[in-house]
């Protein structure tokens, strides 16, 4: 199961790289434009300047992600949303979130925040027993809200600075720290008894991997290059980076 | 519900008044017009409307207007034609075209609110992008330098005719009507005037919502919101954005979802947080600045204007654009008019001055037509932030008995209220005016 997953991701990465092979450079042009410098007192868009040394590559992956969305991902998501009523889709979401509580617990502990870890454990136990294996968010309705932690945030807590901005194939915006975190987040599910059995079941069936992905994508309202703004890439980069800063503070 | 509301409004003689009407208090919570503009209509005050996008009722279609046009790779993601939205009723119904506001695509927030209301009212709806939108500048504009009302009107007129031919086989419609919001409202007024001369479409009824009177005056007001805040000191805007973002993040509990982005994304950002009035004005200013930067950049590349992108430069699919964005961050919409629009149109209209341009891109140019056009009506707000002093009175004078002004609602803030939806649908339902 791991091999299948790894080779799929590798293939996606290679396709993304191929998509990025076009050169990004500007052909310089023949004149000096009317306006070339931002005025010193204005610093609006200086705030948007994020460390992005791999920008042409990142833009290429951003483009790949849009193509992937348009041709594969979103048609499936639209069909999923059209066919399944919201109640059913909520159950699917809750199921996967319940499994995710393991990550939240582990990372809460790694950040020396036992209250976060404790809450995640309680949510997992309540939902797995009373909530029929996580299909109903009973803990949530009892007032124990989800608090999402991941290894990227743990690294941030421990002071690892974000490193350069990265756009990942399919996953979208990230940075070096959070990408490493993603890799680690797969691990906890492999050693806990109930969770590893469920994970083994899930990953042995490609259709269910697909369902995880489709479920996740259907909850995210973002669509690439739908903003109608030529500077969307810069704006997403800014928002993502700011959001991760504030995630790490919570 | 809508039939009842319509009947009530008709019954009370409020649909289209016998004299120009300043409407009384209605169920709308915000007295401050900037809050109204930013927040719109909160949940509790909204009419029960369908969501044409969520419910997959609206189809996004494309139509190619200039098949031989070569478009720079930098716009690889949006060069396959003008995008319009089509929401069809089952069976026969009138068809209403709805034009988006500044920088707005066919599926931008405000025009979709109108579409939702019109669909509830039983109309087929086609939503159109603004001539100032990225999609239209690239795919629908002859010159790619928007703000020239005569050209934008001609381009829209061609587009609407083409779309009518496209959809004729798919939907059964009786009459064709037209509505526009904000700058789209001025587009609609100019379209009605053009249609009265060329007679190629024959709009049954036209509705003009929260228009500017003068494109230049209104954009100066919005530019001013940004400049006032930026003047407070270096980094003032950046600090504001950081502060807003942290307050928003505390409220936002999505699964790492990225907010959808548009010229008005900051508007929606603020629906989750309790804002200060100063912040709101600055927010409107920043949002408009982002829109202006977008318009100027797209126009510059498409028309090779040497505004911020060097003349004849070739930009690729993966070219970093940050440095152009930074320069544009310090340029206003007025700069676009003065240093891109004006030189561009002086080439074909020698001696064109800025004052002449300012004067003609306005409702005044079509005022004689509007005064006597019985089939064109206006709904506005007395506290519309884009109108300068005296402009509400001016519009009331021009539209006469065909105008109605809500006391509150800011700029396009009340489109989702039951009163507004019923009033809009009643206007289109009541048949051709003589």
List the defining traits of the structure above:
heterodimer; A: 250 residues; mainly alpha; globular; B: 434 residues; alpha/beta; 9 strands
Radius of gyration based on Cα positions of chain B: 21 Å
Morphology of chain B:
globular
The percentage of residues in β strands of chain A lies in under 5%
H/E series of chain B, N to C? HEHEEEHEHHEHEHHHHHHHHEHEH
Secondary structural class of chain A: mainly alpha
Strand-residue fraction of chain B? 5-15%
Report the uncertain regions of chain A: none
Could you give the distance between the termini of chain A?
35 Å
Along the chain, the helix and strand elements of chain A come as HHHHHHEEHHHH
**Global mean pLDDT of chain B:** 88
Q: Report the average pLDDT across residues of chain A.
A: 68
Q: What proportion of the residues of chain A is helical, as a percent range?
A: 55-70%
| Rounded radius of gyration of chain A (Å) | 21 Å
Give structural notes.
By secondary structure, chain A is mainly alpha-helical. Helix content of chain A is 61%, strand content 3%. Chain A is built from ten helices and two strands, in the order H-H-H-H-H-H-E-E-H-H-H-H. Chain A has helices spanning 2-19, 55-83, 86-110, 114-129, 138-141, 151-157, 176-185, 193-204, 206-219, 232-249, and strands spanning 165-168, 172-175. Chain A has a two-stranded antiparallel ribbon. In chain A, a hairpin with a 3-residue loop joins strand 1 (165-168) and strand 2. In chain A, helix 2 (55-83) crosses helix 9, helix 3 runs antiparallel to helix 4 (114-129) and helix 6 packs across helix 7 (176-185). The mean pLDDT of chain A is 68. With 434 residues, chain B is α/β, with parallel strands linked by helices. Chain B has 16 helices and nine strands. A nine-stranded mixed β-sheet of chain B has the order 1-9-8-7-6-4-5-3-2, sandwiched between helices. Classes of the chains: A mainly alpha (250), B alpha/beta (434). At the A-B interface, helix 2 and helix 10 of A face helix 8, helix 10, helix 11 and helix 12 of B.
């Amino acid at each position: 199961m791991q091999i299948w997953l790894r080779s799929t991701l590798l293939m996606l990465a290679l396709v993304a790289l191929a998509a990025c092979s076009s050169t990004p450079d500007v052909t310089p042009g023949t004149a000096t434009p009317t306006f070339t410098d931002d005025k010193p007192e204005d610093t609006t868009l200086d705030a948007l300047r994020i460390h992005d040394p791999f920008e042409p590559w990142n833009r290429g992956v951003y483009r790949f992600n849009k193509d992937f969305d348009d041709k594969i991902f979103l048609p499936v998501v639209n069909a999923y949303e059209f066919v399944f009523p919201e109640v059913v889709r909520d159950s699917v979401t809750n199921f996967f979130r319940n499994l995710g509580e393991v990550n939240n617990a582990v990372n809460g502990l790694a950040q020396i925040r036992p209250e976060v870890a404790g809450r995640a454990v309680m949510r997992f136990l309540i939902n797995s027993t009373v909530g029929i294996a996580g299909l109903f968010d009973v803990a949530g309705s009892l007032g124990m809200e989800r608090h999402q932690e991941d290894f990227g945030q743990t690294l941030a807590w421990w002071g690892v600075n974000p490193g350069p901005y990265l756009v990942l194939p399919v996953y979208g915006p990230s940075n070096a720290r959070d990408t490493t975190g993603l890799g680690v987040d797969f691990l906890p599910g492999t050693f806990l008894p109930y969770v590893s059995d469920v994970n083994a079941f899930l990953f042995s069936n490609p259709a269910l991997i697909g369902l995880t992905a489709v479920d996740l994508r259907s909850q995210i309202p973002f669509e690439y290059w739908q903003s109608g703004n030529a500077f969307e890439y810069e704006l997403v980069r800014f928002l993502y980076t700011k959001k991760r800063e504030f995630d790490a503070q919570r | 519900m809508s039939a009842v509301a319509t009947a009530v409004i008709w019954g009370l003689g409020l649909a289209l008044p016998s004299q120009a009407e300043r409407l009384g208090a209605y169920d709308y919570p915000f007295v401050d017009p900037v809050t109204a503009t930013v927040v719109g209509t909160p949940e509790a005050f909204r009419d029960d409307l369908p969501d044409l996008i969520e419910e997959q009722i609206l189809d996004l279609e494309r139509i190619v207007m200039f098949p031989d046009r070569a478009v720079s790779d930098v716009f690889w993601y949006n060069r396959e034609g003008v995008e319009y939205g089509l929401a069809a009723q089952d069976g026969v119904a009138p068809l209403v075209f709805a034009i988006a506001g500044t920088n707005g695509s066919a599926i931008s927030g405000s025009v979709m609110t109108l579409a939702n209301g019109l669909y509830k009212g039983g109309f087929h709806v086609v939503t159109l992008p603004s001539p100032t939108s990225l999609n239209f500048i690239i795919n629908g504009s002859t010159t790619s330098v928007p703000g020239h009302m005569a050209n934008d009107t001609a381009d829209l007129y061609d587009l609407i005719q083409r779309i009518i031919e496209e959809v004729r086989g798919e939907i059964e419609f009786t009459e064709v009507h037209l509505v526009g919001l904000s700058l789209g409202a001025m587009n609609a007024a100019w379209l009605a005037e053009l249609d009265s001369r060329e007679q190629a479409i024959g709009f049954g009824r036209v509705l003009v919502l929260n228009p500017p009177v003068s494109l230049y005056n209104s954009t100066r007001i919005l530019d001013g919101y940004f400049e006032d805040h930026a003047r407070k000191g270096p980094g003032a805007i950046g600090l504001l954005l950081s502060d807003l973002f942290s307050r928003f993040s505390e409220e936002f509990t999505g699964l790492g979802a990225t907010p959808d982005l548009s010229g008005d994304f900051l508007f929606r950002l603020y629906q989750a947080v309790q804002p200060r009035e100063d912040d709101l004005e600055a927010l409107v200013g920043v949002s408009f600045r982002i829109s202006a930067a977008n318009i100027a950049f797209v126009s510059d590349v498409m028309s090779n204007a040497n505004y911020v992108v060097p003349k004849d430069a070739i930009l690729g699919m993966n070219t970093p654009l940050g440095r152009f964005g930074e320069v544009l961050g310090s340029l206003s919409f007025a700069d676009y008019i003065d240093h891109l629009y004006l030189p561009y149109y002086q080439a074909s209209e020698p001696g064109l001055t800025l004052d002449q341009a300012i004067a003609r891109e306005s409702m005044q140019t079509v005022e004689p037509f509007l005064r006597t056009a019985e089939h064109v009506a206006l709904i506005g707000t007395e506290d519309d932030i884009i109108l300068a002093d005296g402009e509400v009175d001016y519009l009331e004078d021009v539209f006469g008995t065909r105008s109605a002004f809500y006391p509150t609602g800011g700029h396009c803030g009340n489109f989702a209220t039951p009163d507004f939806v019923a009033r809009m649908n009643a206007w289109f339902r009541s048949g051709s005016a003589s």
